[in-house]
Amino acid sequence: MGSDFTESDSIRPENRRDRDRYMRFVLFFFILPITILVSCNQCSSLEPDENQNWIQTDIPYDGLILSLAASGTNIFAGTNSGKIFLSTDNGTTWITCNTGFPNTEIKALAISGTYIFAGTVNSGVFRSADNGASWTAASTDISGYCVTSFAVSDTNLFAGIWNGGVFRSTNYGTSWTEVNTGLTTGHIQSLAISGNYLFAGTMLQGVFLSTDNGTNWIACNTGLPNADFTQLAILGTNLFAGTYDSGVFRSTDNGASWTAVSNDLSPYRVNSFAISDTNLFVGFWHEGVFLSTNNGTSWTTVSSDLINRNIYSLLISGNYLFAGTSIGLYKRPLSEMITS
To answer: Which of 33, 101, 112, 294 is most enclosed, with most CB atoms within 10 A?
Structure first.
């Protein structure tokens, strides 16, 4: 049987009402995709752009930022080339402050009293009494050493030395005393202090504790792996230890026992910690910055679009988190990362 029916017949308008329906049908299917596209583009533009939230500072250096320290609105940044930079406006502008400083890596920075201290590779400790305008060697007692870390408690300044143990100064670096009794290694990577408790992280020998300003040390390694303990941090009653390749560990009893708190991040190399109230930031080599708001129980990345994820140093100053990377210094508002 023949038929004149065509596909177009099924939607051909026969009167005004049908024609109106037809036009609405056509407009709906032509306009809807455009509307969706515009809406999606608007949604996309409103979503947080982490790359823009991380602001590259104007520090005139595009190499490794190995160390950071702050005093008020002043921020000091130490580099791998012997250059020290100072910002007096919380990271907006920077000046070089190198007078009297040797051409060597700056592994650690600390503020004690009115002095700024810089720990160097193979040149010991340098200090400045004029906000970084000039520097002098702190003492010949530790000249030639590689200084990896500092810890400050009142007038006690402790320096962690690679292949030299721990040294203490009670006169702002004018003289130093070796305080290594009980340490089974001289390879000190990190220091942290809380009240009368001084902790030292070592290479392959675990964490050590002193309760008498470094005069005597005991090992406190229950639950810790045989690892290189690169960083230590104290948050309330929690002590955190970061490792070279085994993640982060936490102790709630001043080092008597430890538990792993970063199973998902365990292969990562910890280079730095930073603490803001009850929030713990960790800077990893090659993996960026992670945040825990519950003492390490869970972690979230806060650097998915950070241009460089090779984090060497972290610092909280004002309302910003600063991250020293292998290609300069970046900062991000804390309010973008800490929402509760």
So the answer is: 101
Task: Output the CA–CA distances (angstroms, integers) from residue 229 to 205, 246, 271, in the order listed.
Answer: 8, 9, 10
Q: Is residue 22 within a helix (H) or strand (E), and if so which, with residue range?
A: helix 16-46
Closest C-alpha to 229, from 217, 216, 246: 246
**Which tokens belong to 335?**
């309010």
Nearest to 80 by CA among 306, 249, 336, 329: 329
Integer Cα distance of 103 and 83 in angstroms? 7
The three-state secondary structure class of 335 is helix
Does the predicted model carry a pTM greater than 0.90?
A: no
Non-local (6+) Cβ contacts of 196 within 8 A are: 211, 212
- For residue 154, the SS3 value is coil
Q: Which two tokens stand for residue 236?
A: 């309330």
Q: Which residue has the tokens 């823009």?
A: 52
**Residue 71: which of 82, 56, 86, 57 has the closest Cα?**
86
Dist CA 201 CA 185 (whole Å): 10
For 290-322, write each residue's pLDDT tens digit. 999 999 999 999 998 899 999 999 999 999 999
Find residue 210's DSSP bridge partners: 198
What is the DSSP code string of 209-232? EESSTTSS-EE--TT--S-BEEEE
DSSP 57: P
Q: What is the pLDDT of residue 340?
A: 64
- Please give the single-letter amino acid code of residue 257: S
Model pLDDT, residue 52: 53
Residue with tokens 């950070």, as numbered in its chain:
306
